[in-house]
Amino acid sequence: MSSAREETDRGAEPVDYRFTLANERTFLAWIRTALGLLAGGVAVHAVVQEQWSVDFRTVLAVSCLLLSLVLAVGAYVHWRRVRAAMDEGRPLPGTVLVPILAVGTAFVAILACLAVLLH
User: Fold this and answer.
1) N or C: the chain end with fewer CB closer than 10 Å?
2) Domain layout of the chain by residue ranges
3) Could you give phi then psi for residue 8, rounded to 5 degrees?
4) pTM, whole model, 2 decimals?
């Protein structure tokens, strides 16, 4: 006989599976954002050749790539923390990903604006 909180190798399943699915959707949204930044960094490095100086292009590309890395790792850590909190019946933890993404995106946007204006 199985119960609503059947034990698994990961721990107790949440009472409502929708919470688990919502956690996974949030993780995937962060990963999509990280992939977009990764693609942007590669594109800046590969496509924008003659228009901007090598140093400026490198700073912009590396900024995108580092932000992508931070988001991908942070998304996984956050997904695990939320999953553990749900399994243990604790309140859901907050995340620092939102301010990191906001500040990082603003930084990349400022660099891109400078590149366009100084070209």
Assistant:
1) N
2) 15-118
3) -130, 180
4) 0.81
User: Mapped to the 3 state alphabet, what secondary structure does 49-106 carry?
Assistant: CCCCCHHHHHHHHHHHHHHHHHHHHHHHHHHHHHHHHHHHCCCCCCCCHHHHHHHHHH
Q: Are 24 and 76 in contact (CB under 8 A)?
A: no
Q: Are 35 and 69 in contact (CB under 8 A)?
A: no
How far apart (Å, rounded) are the C-alpha atoms in residues 70 and 16?
30
Paired tokens of 29: 């949204």
Decide: 45 and 35 in contact? Cβ < 8 Å.
Answer: no
Q: Which residues, 6 or more positions from 67, have their beta carbon under 8 angstroms from its beta carbon?
A: 37, 100, 101, 104, 105, 108
**CB within 8 Å of 74: residues ≥ 6 apart:** 30, 95, 96, 97, 100
pLDDT, tens digit (0-9, with 9 covering 90-100), for 3-60: 444 444 455 565 678 988 999 999 999 999 999 999 999 999 888 877 778 888 899 9
